[in-house]
Automatic annotation (TrEMBL):
<dbReference type="InterPro" id="IPR014710">
    <property type="entry name" value="RmlC-like_jellyroll"/>
</dbReference>
<dbReference type="InterPro" id="IPR013096">
    <property type="entry name" value="Cupin_2"/>
</dbReference>
<protein>
    <recommendedName>
        <fullName>Cupin type-2 domain-containing protein</fullName>
    </recommendedName>
</protein>
<feature type="domain" description="Cupin type-2">
    <location>
        <begin position="52"/>
        <end position="107"/>
    </location>
</feature>
<dbReference type="InterPro" id="IPR011051">
    <property type="entry name" value="RmlC_Cupin_sf"/>
</dbReference>
<dbReference type="Pfam" id="PF07883">
    <property type="entry name" value="Cupin_2"/>
</dbReference>
Length: 124
């Protein structure tokens, strides 16, 4: 199986099963009914603009690898905010439950491995 991770995300169950999920116009509106609702998701996201909202994943850590570009990942654990600068090749593990959002300094691409059950968003 070959995929472009920008157009087909992968749901990974941690037991060896991988389920391809084509990214459609309604992907994010229907994600709770998809295999990603109970699994980790592997995807590549174009990073062209600052994120307009914060997100957090209360049930699992998130692994982010910046493939190209330069971003700053803002993180808020409820007590303090920190900034992690990411350049091409940098890997960041966002702890479970930590709010985070990206500020794009140079456009690029971000690979994410996310355990998404319970994901929440708030305005920036």
């Amino acid at each position: 199986m070959r995929f472009d991770l920008e157009t087909t995300y992968l749901a990974i169950d941690g037991k060896g099963e991988v389920i391809p999920m084509p990214v459609t116009d309604t992907f994010w509106q229907t994600i709770d009914a998809s295999p990603a609702a109970t699994r980790s998701m592997l995807a590549v996201y174009p990073m062209t603009a600052d994120w307009v909202s914060w997100e957090r994943h209360p049930e699992g850590e998130e692994v982010l690898v910046l493939l190209e570009g330069h971003i700053e990942m803002l993180m808020d654990d409820g007590n303090r905010q920190t900034v992690a600068e990411m350049r091409a090749g940098t890997t960041l593990v966002v702890p479970a439950g930590v709010w985070h959002r990206a500020l794009v300094r140079t456009p690029g691409r971000l690979l994410g491995l996310t355990y998404g059950p319970g994901t929440d968003h708030r305005p920036a």
